[in-house]
């Protein structure tokens, strides 16, 4: 079962080069990315990740660590990844290629 706000063991089984992030309402303090095309950048905490096996390339890829903050671009017209809600919080399932960067929380 879940522990606290998605801390501890993740209840999600994630496969391949996908990550599950819990969306943050705003950018973490001290961090702000800008898209040259003007698309909004969204942020989420990594709460689940696959094993990193990329079937198309037949190799393993490095995955962001659990609890890292991941940044991804999202246009106003299209939601990035699949989304779902748990206890009123929004989550996204993103392919690794959608993640621009990931960094540890301070």
Shape label = globular
Q: Could you say what the CATH topology is called?
A: 10 Kd Chaperonin, Protein Cpn10, Chain O
Alpha plus pi helix count: 0
* Main sheet overview: 6 strands, antiparallel
Q: Give start-end ranges of low-pLDDT stretches.
A: 1-8
Structural class: mainly beta
Strand content: 35-45%
- What is the chains' assembly state? single chain
Would you mind describing this structure in some detail?
There is one protein chain. By secondary structure, the protein is an all-beta fold. It has a single domain, classed as 10 Kd Chaperonin, Protein Cpn10, Chain O. Helices cover 0% and strands 39% of the residues. The strands form 2 sheets. It has a 6-stranded antiparallel sheet, with no helix packed on it. Strands 3-4 form a two-stranded antiparallel ribbon. Strand 3 (53-54) and strand 4 (59-60) form a beta hairpin. Residues 1-8 have low confidence and may be disordered.
Question: What attributes does this structure have?
Answer:
globular; disordered N terminus; 8 strands; six-stranded antiparallel β-sheet; mainly beta; 106 residues; 0% helix; two-stranded antiparallel ribbon; single chain
């Amino acid at each position: 079962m879940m522990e606290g706000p998605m801390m501890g063991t993740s209840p999600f089984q994630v496969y391949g080069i996908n990550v599950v992030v819990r969306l943050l309402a705003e950018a973490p303090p001290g961090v702000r990315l800008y898209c040259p095309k003007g698309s909004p950048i969204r942020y989420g905490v990594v709460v689940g990740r696959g094993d990193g096996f990329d079937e198309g390339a037949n190799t393993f890829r490095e995955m962001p660590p659990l609890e890292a903050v991941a940044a991804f671009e999202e246009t106003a017209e299209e939601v990035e990844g699949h989304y779902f809600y748990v206890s009123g919080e929004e989550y996204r399932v993103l392919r690794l290629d959608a993640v621009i960067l990931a960094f540890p929380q301070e």
